[in-house]
Structures are given as C-alpha cells and as structure tokens.
Specification:
Length: 149
C-alpha cells in the first residue's frame, strides 16, 4: 500500500557552547510545498543532541495533533537520524528517554521517513533554532513553551 503524499518537517536543534543555551526549530510543509507551521522553543542549558531530539519530538507531536498520516523528517543531525534508524545505539540515558519517546510517537503515525541532509538544506529550521536560542539569551525569563507561527 502506498503512503499518502507526505508532509515534510525540517528539524534542527543547537546549543551555543554545547552544553549551553539551546533551542530547536521546525518548519513543516504539506505535500504541495505550502508551509503549514513553524515551531521553535528555547530549552535552557542543554546539549545540541538534546535540542535535535526535541525538534524531532515537536514535529512528531504536531503531526499527531493535526492527524498527518505521512511525514518525511529531514535533519542535519547525522547522529539522531542514525539512532532513529537503528544504525547507532543510544547510549546516553537522557537521549535514550527522548529516543524512546520519539519511537513511541513515530508508531502513532501511519508512515514516517527520516533522512539526513546537509546543513545548507535545512536553513529555515536552523534559523528558527537560532531564534529560539536568542530568545533565551535576551530574556531574563525566557519562554520555555513552544513558539508557533
């Protein structure tokens, strides 16, 4: 059975200093290329891998909440992509919790594909992640709830 035309979620996360001020960015397009959401969140003092996984989780939660049956995820995090595909083991306990949650959420979507892309092919998500980190840096009480546009 062929999957429905896929929405595409470009996800990115980063931390300045690693660990340091961290955030993620996600941009989601429908099967016709129309942008349906931009998500970003400041995560506090975290690692870049923690931020990458939180971007993935935000994309998966959005897909479930909006009943998106088919999702293609694009990330410039080779580590996260290879862990999600089962190529690399997840050794870090904190990342293991995020990985387990991502696997649980993925199982709730009819079709999910995850692929690696070079950073230059993930520019909007990268910009959103940097904006999230800037929000944290520039505010004495940064928001920690997801920001959606």
């Amino acid at each position: 059975m062929d999957a429905a035309p896929a929405h595409t979620a470009h996800v990115d996360g980063g931390a300045r200093g690693n660990p340091g001020p961290a955030g993620f960015g996600v941009v989601i397009h429908d099967a016709h290329g129309k942008k349906v959401a931009e998500l970003s969140q400041y995560l506090g003092h975290r690692t870049n891998n923690y931020a990458e996984y939180n971007g993935l989780l935000a994309a998966l939660r959005f897909a479930i909440a909006h009943r998106i049956p088919s999702l293609k995820i694009v990330s410039d995090s080779e580590l996260m992509v290879r862990q999600m595909k089962g190529i690399y083991k997840v050794r870090h306990p904190e990342l293991r919790k995020l990985y387990d949650e991502a696997q649980h959420l993925t199982a709730q979507i009819e079709y999910v594909e995850i692929r690696h892309a070079l950073r230059e092919h993930n520019q909007i998500a990268d910009r959103l992640a940097n904006q999230a980190m800037d929000r944290g840096k520039n505010s004495p009480h940064p928001e920690t709830a997801p920001h959606q546009t």
